[in-house]
Amino acid sequence: KIDETTKKNGAFSSLARYFSALWYPLFASALEFVPRQADLASLEDWIEEALPHHRTEASQLFFQGVLPEFLAFLQKQYGLPKLQLNEIGGWLHEGERRVNANWITPQQFDRAIKLLKSGKITKDPQLAQLCVLVARICYRMGTRRREPLQASVMDLQLSKTPELVIRESQYGSLKSDQAVRRLPIGLMPVEEAKELLEYAVNRRNQSGA
Predict the structure, then answer these.
(1) Whole-angstrom Cα distance, residue 111 to residue 25?
(2) The predicted structure's pLDDT at residue 56
């Protein structure tokens, strides 16, 4: 029960705004998601999917202002892992304009691939190639960034119409059963698809699979 004094001094409206900023974007998408049972990557996806519900810059900034306290409460009460919020995709940093963080231009993607191949990120050529392949899968097939990371070469189905199977594995779980899917390798340009399939064949041969 809210007394008249609380109503008059504005605390009630502030409380309502606080919960409206958090409740819908976080819990409308959490019907099949239990935060305290999730891993760090799943929690990051949870926050990323909540951000677009705030359509104005002011609304997003308010959400970002109240979210750390709310997460600190969940961490204390339920043992949630600590998130690096400023590294989450779509997080609006001070002085930045709001942009659609889910869109990467072809030019930006090409620059990222060149950087991965340049040796500035890693001197290990095998790791560099793997990073390039994962980046291509995410960009061409629209996967979440952790989905190709938890896949194995056996999830690349080398049939007449090759597919990448997105499913739970020993390396991680998916957000829901609906996230299990089959993605045709034909979504990728021919040369990129060829390199991915050659990588899968070589890895299988090395492991004797």
Answers:
(1) 33
(2) 75
Q: What is the pLDDT of residue 69?
A: 78
Q: What is the DSSP string of 109-170?
A: HHHHHHHHHHTSS-S-HHHHHHHHHHHHHHHHH---THHHHT--GGGEE-SSS-EEEE--BT
Distance CA 49, CA 84 (A): 16
**pLDDT value at 91 more than 70:** no
Per-residue DSSP letter, 96? P
DSSP per-residue letters across 13-37: HHHHHHHHHHHHHHHTT-TT--GGG
**pTM for the structure as a whole:** 0.54
List Cβ neighbours of 138 (8 Å cut-off, separation of 6 or more).
144, 145, 147, 148
Asked whether the beta carbons of 118 and 144 are under 8 A apart, the reply is: no
